[in-house]
Amino acid sequence: MVKKHNFSVRNFFSFTLLLLILSFTASASGGYEIRVRMNGLRDTVCYLGNHFGDKQYVKDTVRVDHDGWAIFKGNEPLPGGIYLVVLPSHTYFEIVVNEQKFSIETDTTDFVESMKITGSLENKLFNDHQKFIVERTKYSQTVKGRMDANKDNKDSTAALKKIIADVDKEVKEYRLKLMRDFPQTFMAKIIKTMSEPEVPEAPKDEKGNITDSTFQFRYYKAHYLENVDFSDDRLLRTPLLQTKIKTYTQQLTVPLPDSIIASVDTIIDRSKANKEVFKYAVATLANFYETSNIMGYDKVFVHIAEKYYLSNDAYWADSTLKAKIHERVMKIKPNILGEKAYNLVMPDTAFVMHSLQDIKEKYTILAFWDPTCSHCKHEIPMLSAYRDSARAKGISVEVFSVGIESDIELWKKFIRDNKLKWINVSDLYNNTNFRNYYDIYSTPVIYLLDDQKRIIAKRLDTEKIRDFISNSMKGTK
Predict the structure, then answer these.
(1) What does pTM read for this prediction?
(2) Beta-carbon contacts of residue 43 (< 8 Å; ≥ 6 apart)
(3) Which superfamily, per CATH, for 345-475?
(4) Alpha-carbon distance values, 476 to 81, 235, 398, 456 (Å)
(5) 1-195: which CATH topology?
(6) pLDDT of the chain along its 477 residues, tens only?
(7) Are 85 and 51 in contact (CB under 8 A)?
(8) What's the CA dihedral at 421, 426, 432, 434 to 10 degrees?
(9) Contact at 8 Å (CB) between 9 and 129?
């Protein structure tokens, strides 16, 4: 099975060859024609696809003739990027599209090693890099195996570690040479995008003690995006740009909404260098944080929506899309973590009014449920048992329980059958508009409020409520 390969390069091309290839490209007519011959494949179909972020899309489908040739061609040039030639078996190999007319011959037994390229400097560099990286990786793995076998021999281990370090240095020098020798190629841009910051040692005092333990991490993050050219939309059609965005926002950023918002804005501000990159960054980040299951990340979505979509910066968004986003923001914004919960005043089973804000306990659990909901039939009795047990242990907690079923008798029967001793209320006619304020589109939905009625957690089950309150109480001791 052929898998994705890391991109790499070895340069044996002379300046004369570069001029010949560039001349060939410049003189070629419009459109594209990529000829691919695969020994071992005939009389079938294959596909030309391209990366786009973390996904792949089919661009062209052709018939492989009896001699193994597949000819992809079209009247319009292909946008630059890393493309995939995909076989019916779903194995594939990658090529670089920058030049529009070239040919590749290879063998299905080993696409990379047997590849021969005509008319494309980009793919010669790409293929040489792949071969080099594969060979060096195999060698490193052999050395690591020897390290494992000699792990009790410190001298041997030290020597083998140096060999691995030398291999890493060799790979780095190879890539630097490629960028120096062929600075105008897209392949050089790919290598540069892959590059990571060289992090200096952390500052030390006169005794050699590190004075700033976070220096290297902060330096790495501050310089992580320096080699990414956000003005080049060809990077959209590689896995690299999406990987950089994901790493910066998800691995190099503290997983708190306000910290993420700052990192998201950094990415989007840089992406403004190119309209398509800007569109991709905004749309991808907005979708990720709106659909995330991580509590509190909806605040990031609201920020992106208000700053970029609803401010009209998102040039691609029509009035229908903006109306939908606005509606979604209006449902999420009132119940963002840290915000004060919207007060609900509702009648109980005896039509006595109760106010959410009147509860004086340290913790208030706000639960929305439906007696006909199968999940509620399981979760609400569990929540009731926890509430009774917690109060018996002296934990200051109460439940403001909102039944959303319009059949009042079903609601009352569920309360009686399950002996729900908490505050049972309902808004049969939706006078409080609670569905919008608390984004109720399914049940059960459970919020946890502090003594000031600020939302400190939401969309939890009973087990997580128990853990959250327990951990919160430990933190205050």
Answers:
(1) 0.85
(2) 64, 65, 66
(3) Glutaredoxin (3.40.30.10)
(4) 54, 48, 19, 15
(5) Immunoglobulin-like (2.60.40)
(6) 333 333 232 332 333 333 333 434 433 458 999 999 999 888 999 999 999 999 999 999 999 999 899 999 999 999 999 999 999 998 999 999 999 999 999 998 899 999 999 999 999 999 999 999 999 999 988 888 888 787 777 777 888 888 988 999 999 999 999 999 999 999 999 999 999 999 999 999 898 899 999 999 999 999 999 999 999 999 999 999 999 999 999 999 999 999 999 999 999 999 999 999 999 999 999 999 999 999 999 999 999 999 999 998 999 999 999 999 999 999 999 999 999 999 999 999 999 999 999 999 999 999 999 999 999 999 999 999 999 999 999 999 999 999 998 889 999 999 999 999 999 999 988 899 999 999 998 999 999 999 999 999 999 999 999 999 999 887 665
(7) no
(8) 80
(9) yes
Ramachandran class of 156: left when φ > 0, alpha when ψ lies in -120 to 50, beta otherwise: alpha
Crossing angle of the two packed helices 121-149 and 186-194, in degrees rounded to 10: 30
Which residue type sits at 264?
A: V
Q: What 3-state DSSP class applies to 12?
A: coil
Each domain of the chain, given as residue ranges in start order, spans 1-195, 228-335, 345-475
Alpha-carbon span 373 to 304, nearest angstrom: 34
Q: Are strands 345-347 and 445-449 parallel, antiparallel or unpaired?
A: unpaired
| 3-class state of residue 49 by DSSP | strand
Rounded CA-CA distance 200/3 in Å is 35
The answer to whether 445 and 421 are in contact (CB under 8 A) is no
Q: Which one, of 108, 102, 109, 107, lies nearest residue 124 by Cα?
A: 102
